[in-house]
Amino acid sequence: MEEFRPLIGISVGDPAGIGPEITAKALALPEISKICRPLVIAESEMMKEAIRFSGLDLKVHPVSSPGQGLFQFRTLDLLDMKNIDARSIRYKAVSADCGRASFEYVKKVIELAMSKEIDATVTGPINKEAINRAGFHYSGHTEIYADLTRTKDYAMMLMHNQFRVIHVSTHVSLREACDRVKKDRILRVIRLGYDAAKKLGIENRR
Predict the structure, then answer these.
(1) Cβ atoms of residues 99 and 132 within 8 Å
(2) CA–CA gap between residue 109 and residue 87 (Å, rounded)
């Protein structure tokens, strides 16, 4: 019996940033295809350019739905959003067009997860100035996910091995961060962290 490999939707982030290149390089690693079925949410020509630039042995396989993916090593299954002309991208430059595209990638990957077409999501780096120029006024991924999933009580948790940090505030000035340190908020974040650790199977939560 074949071992279960979760279907992971990857929004690549800002087209003018490092997200497409990081995604391509990650999916060129054989160990990735052994543990999951990655589906890239992006634009086909943009990812072909990232593969060419990185000198990778990958072929792009465009699909119109997650179920059409091949999920084989050296194949980059891609849901082509067709939302930006790859020839118009100016790398390392902030633009509303790239901000709009990156927001649309995130929105799509959330929709796929909410409809249970994929098992989980991974996000590439967005440019907050770019998405704000495009008219999407969020301070980061956390707030986008909270809004589009209609989640009222949330916080960001960072993890590395056995080290976990959950934030009372994110992406605000030091002045505002200090203002947000209130007893009720701290208690709520502690409870969120405790519940998250429980769901992750951590027995000795503290």
Answers:
(1) yes
(2) 24
140 phi and psi, to 5 degrees? 170, 180
Same domain? 120 vs 205: no
Cβ-Cβ contacts under 8 Å for 161 (sequence gap 6 or more): none
Task: Tell me the two tokens of residue 206.
Answer: 């503290």
Residue with tokens 């350019």: 49
In a domain, 112, yes or no: yes
pLDDT digits (tens, 9 = 90+) for 43-66: 999 999 999 999 999 999 999 999
DSSP 99-150: HHHHHHHHHHHHHHHHTTSSSEEEEPPP-HHHHHHTT---SSHHHHHHHHTT
DSSP states of 151-170 as a string?
-SS---EEEETTEEEE-SS-
Instruction: Give the residue from 69, 127, 119 showing the smallest Cα distance to 103.
Output: 127
> What pTM was estimated for this model as a whole?
0.90
CB atoms within 10 A of CB 48: 18
Number of domains in the chain: 2
- In a 3-state reduction of DSSP, which class is residue 172? coil
State the CATH number of the domain containing residue 18. 3.40.718.10
pLDDT tens-digit readout, 66-106: 999 999 999 999 999 998 988 899 999 999 999 999 999 99
pLDDT in tens, 155-169: 999 999 888 999 998
